[in-house]
Amino acid sequence: MKTLNLYLVRHGQTYYNIFNKLQGWSNSPLTQAGIDGAKEIGERLADVNFAGAFCSDTGRAVSTAQIILDLNQASAVKEPHQAPFFREEFYGYYEGMDMNQSWYLAAGPHGLKNIGEIVAKYSFDTAKDFLKEADPFGMAENHEEYWQRVDQGYELIANDPQLQDGDNVLVISHGNTLLSLMDRYAPGRYDLSERPANGSLTKLKLTDGKIEVVSYNE
Q1: Residue 165 is part of a domain; what is its CATH number?
Q2: Which Pfam families does this entry report, sorted A to Z (predicted)?
């Protein structure tokens, strides 16, 4: 049995975060506040000995990971392993669009107004399905497509031969992904009506491929 301690950090603030746009697989650079926030969490984690580091291949995630690793004093890891499995949910037609408007269009056909109402009545997985239904191109990820991809990321970590029992692993994550993980693996434990903060820390234990939530949005 191998247990890995995962340190999930939400990427630093981006311009799309300020503009309230769905970011998904598209990207915008870190703001100065985002850079400063990444440095702040990097300093918090400076003495954690990371045996590995993983992130999506989007610029905001790579930049956040590199800032944290550059500030680390205990780890020999110098750069993150980039993989598309760790990307945020793909929003298809709604990539880069106003977040409130997009979720209104997804929720409206079901008699609801926003993602909060969808989640309160159903779940984050249902929200993914509703957005795909509303996508005129049908390209947004539904919950099955999303988890099939994301689960491969955690399989990648679990099967990494260089990681040993008890090792600490840095993972740069995304807002809706963190909410989705909490909804799936810690239902009812946390208030998910507010998005996790940029630069916040969430801890998981990964034991033989099974995920346990230790803490959220610290």
Answers
A1: 3.40.50.1240
A2: His_Phos_1
